[in-house]
Design brief:
Elements (H helix, E strand, L loop, with lengths): L12 E2 L5 E2 L4 H6 L8 E5 L5 E5 H4 L6 E5 L6 H13 L4 E5 L6 H14 L3 E6 L3 E6 L8 H25 L2 H30 L1 H6 L5 H30 L6 H27 L2 H27 L5 H29 L4
Parallel strand pairs: 5-6
Antiparallel strand pairs: 1-2, 3-4, 6-8, 7-8
Helix pairs in contact: 3-4, 5-6, 5-8, 5-9, 6-8, 8-11, 9-10, 9-11, 10-11
Length: 342
């Protein structure tokens, strides 16, 4: 019988000493090299079942290692995608081996990836034919909520500075906003890595201070949403780089109100998530409604007045509108997580 794919029925036995026991499948014991006296972790699941696992597996195998063969012809985009997949899968050590040597372009791509996308990761050894990457940060050092808070703070600053660049036509400020997007991406990958590990292990879930796979799924959606909001802030900054004149004062005033509502919507939606506050999450939709009215007002102005930088205004307005809609998405996740307790 394949115990990995087939269920077994085991009867509970009473020892006569006020204890209940159950026999474990031999194939499972052999597969995980479990010996008499070894500790097993028994963890209750939200659905009422029990998860039994070797202690090392449940706590996350910190010695997990992946070996990746690198072909000299492998382009940097494919190389980057593979490394990101290994990072998200929870490997703490990745050894890259190339019989013909890891070429200079590949090495630079790997170093750039580690610097811009991976939290707590370093190259611990390097030779002409190999490189070893190691994740040095353990899960409890930066739990999911703390990492998400950092993401949201950076994203909020990005929107503030992007709009500042729109007001002042400061292209240096706009460029700094675009660069900040890398930092948001770093935290996004780090949080997703934790969430994937948490779904696999109840102990990891407790370590990162979450309570259920459903909660992990909710946080996964929120993280991706905040990442997209940062992308829209970066897009506003990119629009500034192509602008050749300022927007008129009345348009800037409406955009300033739009930006303030967006900022409040992000803050309130995430506060509702961290506090598990249904009413606060529900209130986000009123802010989003005001954003939509401003969006319609700004677009109507394009047809009423001449001399407006039409392309730039359309792009900035679209990004501000999408930001508001993403805040509504976060609020919806909170509603789904808290509706039973409301």
């Amino acid at each position: 019988m394949n115990v990995d794919s087939e269920e077994e029925i085991r009867k509970v036995q009473f020892t006569g000493r006020a204890s209940y026991i159950i026999n474990l499948p031999k194939k499972w014991i052999v597969k995980h090299n479990i010996k008499q006296g070894d500790p097993l972790v028994v963890a209750p699941e939200p659905d009422g079942s029990l998860r039994i696992s070797p202690k090392s597996l449940s706590a996350g195998d910190n010695s997990s290692e992946a070996v990746m063969k690198v072909d000299p012809d492998l382009d940097t985009d494919a190389l980057t995608r593979r490394l990101i997949s290994l990072y998200l899968s929870g490997y703490n050590t990745v050894r890259l081996i190339a019989s013909g040597g890891v070429n200079l372009v590949q090495r630079e791509a790997i170093k750039d990836l580690i610097r811009t996308r991976f939290v707590g990761t370093e190259i611990v050894s390097e030779s002409s034919e190999s490189m070893t990457l190691q994740v040095l940060m353990s899960l409890p050092e930066l739990p999911v909520e703390d990492a998400l808070r950092r993401m949201s703070i950076i994203t909020g600053f990005m929107l503030r500075d992007a709009f500042g660049a729109v007001e002042t036509m400061d292209k240096n400020l706009a460029s700094s906003v675009i660069k900040a997007d890398d930092e948001v991406d770093r935290f996004s990958l780090y949080v997703i890595r934790q969430l994937i590990s948490a779904v696999r292990s109840q102990l990891v879930m407790k370590e990162i201070r979450l309570s259920s796979p459903v909660e992990c799924l909710g946080y996964r959606m929120v993280v991706k949403t905040v990442e997209r909001m940062a992308d829209h802030a970066a897009r506003i900054a990119s629009t500034v780089l192509s602008m050749d004149r300022k927007l008129d004062p009345s348009t800037l005033a409406d955009l300033a109100e739009f930006k303030a509502l967006d900022s409040q919507a992000l803050e309130d939606s995430l506060s509702a998530l961290f506090k598990r506050d249904y009413a606060m999450a529900d209130g986000v939709f009123a802010l989003v409604g005001r954003c939509r009215k401003l969006d319609a007002k700004l677009l109507a102005r394009l047809t009423e007045r001449k001399g407006i930088d039409e392309t730039s205004l359309r792009l900035v307005t679209e990004d501000l509108r999408r930001w508001a809609e993403y805040s509504a998405d976060i609020a919806e996740v909170v509603l789904n997580l808290t509706v039973v307790a409301s």
